[in-house]
């Protein structure tokens, strides 16, 4: 079967590979694959601890062909989103219900071969079914789960003044759930285009980073700074700058990941008695809630998709139109059946 492999940084190849060997796992047909920041980093050779060759693809809209040995209610023909976080089930994080940060977590399409191929085996418990959503919507559930989990970590309350920094795909997914929680939301980004996109999504306040930001935020908050700041940039300077933006007693959530050290001034941190939280991946219950929110129409992801192409065209299209293109918000790969 056609399989697209990232052979080395900057080079995809479309090869003919065998179908996945039988196992107790469910066999699924991949219909749609969302392209993620992780995929772009792997292509650019900037994903640490990443090994090549690798079949990418962890944002998947799939159809169940055979539910496998432990179907858990799944049957052939079901449409599902995939939870790509393969956890051990035994470690301290897993035992405490935090499968998203398992000590030996393997992310499908990052640490193990993923979905850039028509057939794939996945544990049935990692499949989240929806009778209503189409494959494209299902392929966006994982990205949305990242934002939903960050908002959960933040424990946002209705009416709370919240600042989200960074309006890329992760930031946008945070924004969706912060709005759904009824937060009083401001979004900061360097790009005018992205800020305009946010306003079209219903974000009431947008601003640019810089020296005037604190004052601008205070004005928006009737004299008070936001009680929660969520950074979705993965940029060290932005993350370090975060410590100056929350109100006293507030909290910071780092959902964007920076591959290095982030430093902060302790007296500033202490004076404000800040709470700093990391947010990684998402939990299965959160993904099921996200599916319900998309099903009910509270969250509409269709405007996110800026590019579409076919799996077989990936080796040609990806380097030319996707990698390094700031106009790409979310690219969607179609797997013709
Ligand atoms: Zn992703
Ligand atoms: Zn574990």
Mean pLDDT: 96
Shape: globular
Rg, Å, rounded: 20 Å
Secondary-structure content class: alpha/beta
Task: Indicate the topology.
Elements: E1 2-8, E2 11-16, E3 26-34, H1 37-44, E4 59-66, E5 79-82, E6 85-86, H2 92-95, E7 106-107, E8 119-122, E9 127-129, H3 135-139, H4 141-154, E10 161-165, H5 169-180, E11 184-188, H6 192-200, E12 205-207, H7 213-220, E13 228-231, H8 236-241, E14 251-254, H9 266-271, E15 275-278, H10 284-295, E16 305-310, H11 314-322, E17 330-334
The protein binds zinc ion (ZN) (2 copies).
One zinc ion is lined by residues 87-88, 90-91, 93-94, 102-104.
Descriptive account of the structure:
This protein is α/β, with parallel strands linked by helices and 337 residues long. Helices cover 28% and strands 24% of the residues. It contains eleven helices and 17 strands. Strands 3, 4, 5, 8, 9, 16 and 17 form a seven-stranded mixed sheet that branches. The chain has a six-stranded parallel sheet with strand order 12-11-10-13-14-15, sandwiched between helices. Strands 1-2 form a two-stranded antiparallel sheet. Helix 4 crosses helix 5 and helix 4 packs across helix 10. The longest helix is centred in the middle third of the chain and has 14 residues. The model has no long low-confidence stretch (mean pLDDT 96). Bound molecules: zinc ion (2 copies). The site of one zinc ion has 6 residues, from helix 4.
């Amino acid at each position: 079967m056609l399989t697209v492999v990232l052979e080395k940084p900057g080079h995809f190849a479309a090869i003919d590979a065998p179908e996945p060997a039988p196992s107790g796992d469910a066999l699924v047909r991949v219909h749609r694959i969302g392209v993620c920041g992780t995929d772009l980093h792997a292509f650019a050779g900037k994903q640490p601890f990443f090994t090549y060759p690798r079949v990418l693809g962890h944002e998947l809209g799939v159809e169940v062909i055979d539910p496998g040995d432990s179907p858990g209610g799944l049957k052939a023909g079901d449409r599902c989103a995939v939870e790509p976080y393969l956890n051990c089930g035994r470690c301290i994080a897993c035992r405490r219900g935090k499968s998203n940060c398992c000590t030996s977590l393997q992310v499908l399409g990052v640490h193990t071969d993923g979905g850039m191929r028509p057939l794939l085996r996945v544990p049935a418990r990692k499949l989240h079914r929806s009778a209503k959503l189409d494959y494209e919507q299902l392929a966006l559930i994982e990205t949305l789960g990242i934002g939903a989990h960050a908002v959960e970590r933040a424990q946002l309350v209705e009416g709370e003044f919240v600042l989200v920094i960074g309006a890329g795909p992760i930031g946008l997914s945070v924004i969706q759930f912060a709005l759904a929680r009824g937060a009083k939301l401001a979004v900061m980004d360097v790009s005018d285009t992205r800020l305009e996109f946010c306003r079209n999504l219903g974000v009431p306040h947008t601003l640019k980073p810089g020296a005037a930001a604190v004052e601008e935020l205070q004005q928006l908050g009737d004299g008070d700074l936001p009680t929660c700041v969520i950074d979705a940039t993965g940029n060290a300077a932005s993350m370090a700058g975060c410590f100056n933006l929350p109100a006293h007693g507030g909290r910071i959530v780092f959902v964007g990941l920076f591959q290095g050290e982030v430093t902060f001034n302790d007296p500033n941190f202490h004076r404000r008695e800040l709470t700093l939280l990391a947010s990684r991946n998402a939990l299965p219950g959160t993904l099921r809630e996200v599916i319900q929110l998309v099903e009910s129409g509270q969250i509409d992801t269709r405007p996110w998709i800026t590019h579409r192409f076919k799996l077989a065209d990936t080796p040609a299209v990806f380097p030319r139109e996707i990698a390094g293109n700031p106009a790409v918000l979310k690219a969607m790969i179609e797997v013709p059946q």
